[in-house]
Amino acid sequence: MTASLPTRPAEPPMVLDAGTLGRPVHLLAQFSKQLREDLAELLRLRLNVRYRARFEVSQVAMRRLDTRAHEAGWLSFGADAGEIACAIDRGVLMSVLAYRYGLRTPPAEQPGAEAPRETATEERLAALLGQQFVELLAGRIEAGPGAPLPQRPLPFKPIGRLPPARGCWLLEAQVVEHSHGSQGRISLAIGDGWMNRLWHQLTPLRAKAGEQLEQAAPLPTRLTLTLVARLLQKDIPLGQLADLHVGDVIPISLGTTDVLIDDSRLFTATVAEHQGKLCLTSFADVD
């Protein structure tokens, strides 16, 4: 009697995104790691040091937006290179407001209190922080991973509240404030213009990695030499040369050919024809 082993259900095949083909998508994780450090430094200088807060960026990741983003909370900012939109979760905003007004806990988290309505103060804070986050992201794209940020941020202007369209790249940062116990996300939707700049910045990293692999290869595979084949040398009298006209034919025959490298004769070879092309064969060392 034989027992049959249970079969696992087949995993669905991975769907390739045509928009990412040929792009260095694998390097986005390195860019996200760099931006996490930039965001942490921005929060430290603008909030933690000023208000003695404890804002921390737990993680940053990038993904393509498969569906249209939710309508609320998005602010779009524009510059010469394109647009970047920002949305900040309300828990983060209320925690910042609590520190600004000296509250022990954010208004939405006070026991027995209803969630407050969005105020003009909250809208102004969202616009102020959103522009700072957008300018930080644009500066990191311009500088590239590992390089210092520009001294002056690129100028951005608010252009509307439209949510980002499906298919754009979304950068999401998880933010935690330990004193209040609040958390939320900072979302940045990168327009095509800025995303193309990011791909351009990441491409040299991929090329550099390829150069390192090439340098690690054995010397015979990296050393290139110019091979020259001297196919024909024919002596004719000066008088016959002076009588030549356009359309005249000089009969020749190809035999053994000299093969040179930097004018040094190293081999002899036979000239043959293969599929309409002249080829060298039967190489022999020069004695």
CATH-assigned fold name of the largest domain? Chemotaxis protein chec
CATH class of the largest domain: Alpha Beta
Mean pLDDT, as a whole number?
Answer: 82
Number of domains: 2
Q: Provide the gyration radius in Å.
A: 34 Å
Distance linking N and C termini = 77 Å
For the record, the CATH architecture of the largest domain stands as: 3-Layer(aba) Sandwich
SSE pattern: HEEEHHEEEHHEHEEE
CATH H-level superfamily title of the largest domain: CheC-like
What about the largest sheet? Answer: 6 strands, antiparallel
SS element count, helices: 6
What is the topology, as strand order, of the major beta sheet?
Answer: 1-5-6-3-2-4
Number of DSSP E strands: 10
Strand content: 25-35%
What is the overall silhouette?
A: elongated
Low-confidence stretches: none
Structural class by SSE content: alpha+beta
Helix content: 25-40%
